[in-house]
Amino acid sequence: STGVYTVSSAYQLLDRESRDDNTDGVFQDVWKLKIPSKAVFFAWRLIRDRLPTKSNLSRRNVDITDKLCPFYREKDEEAAHLFFSCHKIMLLWWESSSWINMEGVFLQNPRQHFLQHSCCTTYLGIKSKRWLIWWVSLTWCVLNHRNRMAFSNDIFNANKLGGGRYIFLLDLAEEPWKGIWHTFSLLVKQYQRRFL
Fold first, then answer.
1. pLDDT tens across 138-185, in order?
2. Do residues 100 and 126 lie in contact, with contact meaning Cβ atoms separated by under 8 Å?
3. Can you list the alpha helix ranges (DSSP code H) found in 153-179?
4. Which one of 43, 97, 114, 191 is CB 3.0 to 4.6 Å from 102, fit for a cystine?
5. What is the rounded CA–CA span in Å between residue 119 and residue 110?
6. The model's pTM
7. How would you classify residue 36: left for phi > 0, otherwise alpha for psi between -120 and 50, otherwise beta?
């Protein structure tokens, strides 16, 4: 390195960093999913912690008056908390993992959480690709419900979390789950019975 900036040197630096960022193959798994590109891009941004959460906006010097998670209002809204460790959302992950008898602790980092789900290659006949699509679908629903709360003054409502129209990822998947509408409604009902 001569210390002289060139477009070529900048490209080589970025290329080297992006290869280092994908040593675990997580982005290959994401981009191979047969779901709408906006959902893939959302998952990619979540895994890299590049979504406009209140913490990320605050780090970028955006003036945020209320930094708390809109669901439970106890911790700051960070991606790890909002999607995986918030008390109200974590219950949905526990419930869905019980369908395939997946036990253990859920990792809180978005990348590690995704990898944890990609590693369960087969539980009770559920293929890894389907389980990853479920992961994207559930996180997509969480984001959309959070946005309705933030921008439309909606309140937390487990019935609206799935909101039907956001489970489109599962219907558009290469191998759609049979009866996914019924399955998701069962998840919401079980969640309400147990925790609300």
1. 898 899 889 988 888 888 877 666 544 444 444 444 444 444 445 555
2. yes
3. 158-162, 168-172
4. 97
5. 14
6. 0.72
7. beta
